[in-house]
Amino acid sequence: MRVLGVDPGMTRCGIGVVDGSPGRPLTLVHVEVVRTPAEADIGERLLAQADALSAAIASCRPDVVAVERVFSQHNVRTVMGTAQVAGLAIVAATRAGLPIALHTPSEVKAAVTGSGAAGKDQVATMVTRLLRLAEAPRPADAADALAIAICQVWRGGAQRRLAAAVEQVRR
User: Residue 141, class by beta-carbon neighbours within 10 Å (0-12 exposed, 13-18 middle, 19+ buried)?
Assistant: First the structure.
């Protein structure tokens, strides 16, 4: 399975692509951080992020796109930009006909490190080990995007089966 993970952000958006399956070694396919200047027009910034997300989907051809679920933050300006870029990732995946998965930060941290309260350094260290990299991806947005992709590789199948079982019970 190939997963494109997105750590959404207006100034820095991490995009990471991983190949793998549960119980098998993971492989890094692609990682980048798309940056937009804070002083640029919001439309230009969103367009740059949208173009980069669409280009990554087109070039890497993932099976699924996993996006960090936006959650409540104290800084409303930050959460708004994060939500806008997350929406762009969802639209890009939908346009490409790809399924979308959303994971909370604590789900991602727990999947990668074993603790939902892990810090950014712990996540980067585990991503480095799991992908057998010589050094941690920088900046943290790159490691976070890869962690989101790894979370989907490991937990996505179980989540789909659980959702299908719940749907069966409802019928």
Answer: buried
